[in-house]
Design a protein that fits this description.
2 domains; alpha+beta; three-stranded antiparallel sheet; 8 strands
Length: 156
């Protein structure tokens, strides 16, 4: 596994602390099991950082997890991501601030260079239609339209 790979969280570490109201660690992991994410980084002991905002709606929320609890879904630079994988990749590039659609696509392409930009534009439109992103302007005109996470999904 490496940065940029799509992975599915397939389990919860048995010694994971339950957490509390301010940091519900176990509940957060439980929400994420079975979902697909993109590896953002690795720490010095080999744990993967995955951005889970697409599940929790919390801007920039990440978890660190041991690789044995992740299943490689698609390697970086394979020629085709599923819609869910591509959506996770695109949502990981967004936040609560308006950003040009072209910027989101460019950031996603820097993570996975083999993704088709036209398909990304279609997936952004689908995310807007599904209420997972808000839009301003004609999103088919990437340089002159913007998207962001919906205000209700951002909890920070």
């Amino acid at each position: 596994m490496k940065v940029g790979d799509a992975v599915k969280l397939i389990g919860i570490p048995p010694d994971l602390p339950k957490g509390d109201a301010d940091l519900p660690t176990l509940a957060t992991f439980e929400k994420c099991v079975g979902h697909t994410f993109v590896i953002a980084d690795f720490n010095e002991i080999g744990w993967a950082e995955i951005d889970i905002a697409s599940v929790t709606g919390s801007l920039g929320e990440t978890i660190w997890v041991e690789p044995q609890f992740l299943e490689l879904v698609r390697m970086e630079n394979e020629d085709s991501l599923s819609d869910d994988e591509l959506d996770a990749l695109l949502l990981a590039q967004t936040n609560a601030h308006w950003q040009k659609v072209a910027m989101i696509i460019g950031k996603a392409m820097s993570v996975n260079k083999e993704c088709d930009s036209d398909r990304m534009g279609q997936r952004i439109a689908a995310l807007v239609d599904a209420g997972k992103l808000e839009s301003a302007g004609d999103i088919s005109n990437w340089r002159f339209s913007e998207v962001r996470l919906p205000a209700g999904r951002v909890t920070r």
